[in-house]
Amino acid sequence: MVEQDTALGDVLPLGPGLHAFRTVEEAAAALGAVEADYARASAHAAAVAREYFAAERVLGALRRVAGLCRGLGPSTGRSRSPTRRRSA
Question: Where on the phi/psi map is residue 73: left (φ > 0), alpha (ψ -120 to 50), or beta?
Answer without folding.
Answer: beta
